[in-house]
């Protein structure tokens, strides 16, 4: 336990008044996670402006034994960037590190600092006729460092993969203040372990990402967005396979949602309306794209895909957006599901994945089991069917009291869901990370060998246990006494 006053003076001397603060009013917004589930305390808020300042500050923390919770946009879903309630940790914000260091148009690569906001990254790429092929609802606040640290996904994973697939190189500060410089991408490099992959998805427990080199993609010339009515999620699975076979790489996104989710959005956004006249049990949001200079055949492809799908009875109804504004309105419906459901009341949200071939079976089998086992609940699963990841929400009964229900019945529901996911060979965290919310469940259900390897790596890279303690890596079970 460090002398707080001594540490404060040293940190302020290192980073200056803008770089370190203990002002409660400035600290308060960053002490609670985006979902409002976790609130902690902190010694202070550090906001360095360069990798060297990060390294110096980490060395200072190591010297004083002060734990560090790195934070980007504070938009995570698992409490991974929130300090605990001891008040012993310091928040290290990367939000002032916003430089785009280099953009190479010919190789379609960009090097930027960890505090760059996703929306800013999109805009920088677009100015050069390129794009960064990862987007999500929180693009206005999520940062590059946070996206890398949680290996974020999004609506374009079907074609382009998660954040891990976009990262070509990383710069990171390790627990002792050393700087890992791995920004230069090489197509072939067999000098041992791919260390950047160890850091991606590590949620700030192994190192603090300060910059990254990312892969860009050609700009989209045109896109066609369709809203489709379906009899059920099994039909959605058949339609997905049809689209993959017919459209190939032109298939950019394939999202699914049940009628309840659409109804919730329409109630939440009263100025919106359903794209289809009739109601359907499930819906799909499908996007097909063509690169600039190769758009001539897109309309023909779209026509072929949906006409043959209708002939094969793979959908009940469909409408194709007439223009870009309508296409955006379709996507706005999808992106509004989470806030719409949050407005309804308490829910247990599960970010799960199972093998793509078994997702429909999982939803159709497990959902009624939950609603029977926990009377009054309603299951709503939506999301990225094409990569086997759905956001599996269990809504509380109408009379449930927020806060009490989650602690009493909610935890039992989550354990039941995670048990079923494990039986299906899936993951209890598809794209939102483990954080503190799922750490114990990972310890309960994770493969013992994998957990042992994670603990060994954590011990090797952070022997003092100062980087984001209590997150991601489950503690080893106590050794049984004879």
Automatic annotation (TrEMBL):
Pfam families: FAD-oxidase_C (PF02913), FAD_binding_4 (PF01565). GO terms for biological process: respiratory electron transport chain. SUPFAM superfamilies: FAD-binding/transporter-associated domain-like, FAD-linked oxidases, C-terminal domain. PROSITE patterns: FAD_PCMH. Keywords: FAD, Flavoprotein. One of its GO terms (molecular function) is FAD binding. Residues 38-219 form the FAD-binding PCMH-type domain. It comes from the Bacteria. Its cofactor is FAD. PANTHER family: BLL6224 PROTEIN, D-2-HYDROXYGLUTARATE DEHYDROGENASE, MITOCHONDRIAL. Belongs to the FAD-binding oxidoreductase/transferase type 4 family. This is D-2-hydroxyacid dehydrogenase.
């Amino acid at each position: 336990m460090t002398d707080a006053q001594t540490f404060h003076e040293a940190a302020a001397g290192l980073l200056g008044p803008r770089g370190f603060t203990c002002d409660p009013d400035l600290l308060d917004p960053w002490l609670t996670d985006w979902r409002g589930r976790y609130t902690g305390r902190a010694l202070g808020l550090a906001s360095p402006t360069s990798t060297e300042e990060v390294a110096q500050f980490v060395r200072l923390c190591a010297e004083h034994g002060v734990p560090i919770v790195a934070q980007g946009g504070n938009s995570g879903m698992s409490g991974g960037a929130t300090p605990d309630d001891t008040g012993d940790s310091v928040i290290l914000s990367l939000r002032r590190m916003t430089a785009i260091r280099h953009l190479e148009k010919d190789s379609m690569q960009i090097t930027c600092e960890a505090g760059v906001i996703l929306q800013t990254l999109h805009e920088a790429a677009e100015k050069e006729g390129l794009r960064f092929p990862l987007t999500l609802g929180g693009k206005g606040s999520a940062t590059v460092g946070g996206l890398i640290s949680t290996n974020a996904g999004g609506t374009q994973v079907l074609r382009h993969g998660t954040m891990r697939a976009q990262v070509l190189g990383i710069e990171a500060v390790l627990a002792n203040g050393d700087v890992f410089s791995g920004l230069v991408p090489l197509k072939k490099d067999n000098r041992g372990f791919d260390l950047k992959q160890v850091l991606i998805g590590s949620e700030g427990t192994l190192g603090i990402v300060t910059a990254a080199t990312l892969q860009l993609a050609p700009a989209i010339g045109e896109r066609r967005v369709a809203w489709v009515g379906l009899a059920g999620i099994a039909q959605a699975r058949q339609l997905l396979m049809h689209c993959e076979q017919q459209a190939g790489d032109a298939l950019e996104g394939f999202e699914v949602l049940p009628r309840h989710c659409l109804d919730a959005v329409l109630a939440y956004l009263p100025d919106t309306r359903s794209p289809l006249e009739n109601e359907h049990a499930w819906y799909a949001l499908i996007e097909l794209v063509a690169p600039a200079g190769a758009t001539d055949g897109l309309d023909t492809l779209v026509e072929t895909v949906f006409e043959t799908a209708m002939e094969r009875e793979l959908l009940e109804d469909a409408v194709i957006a007439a223009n870009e504004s309508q296409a955006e309105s379709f996507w706005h419906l999808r992106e509004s599901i989470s806030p719409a459901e949050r407005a309804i009341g308490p829910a247990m949200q599960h970010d799960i994945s199972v093998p793509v071939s078994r997702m429909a079976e999982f939803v159709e089998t497990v959902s009624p089991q939950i609603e029977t086992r926990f009377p009054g609940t309603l299951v709503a699963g939506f999301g990225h069917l094409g990569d086997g990841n759905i956001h599996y929400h269990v809504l509380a009964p109408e009379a449930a009291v927020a806060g009490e229900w989650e602690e009493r019945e909610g935890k039992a529901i989550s354990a039941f869901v995670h048990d079923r996911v494990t039986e299906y060979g899936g993951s209890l965290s598809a794209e939102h990370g483990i954080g503190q919310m799922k750490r114990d469940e990972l310890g309960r259900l994770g493969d013992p060998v994998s957990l042992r390897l994670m603990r060994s790596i954590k011990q090797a890279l952070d022997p003092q246990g100062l980087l984001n303690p209590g997150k991601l890596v489950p503690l080893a079970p106590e050794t049984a006494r004879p």
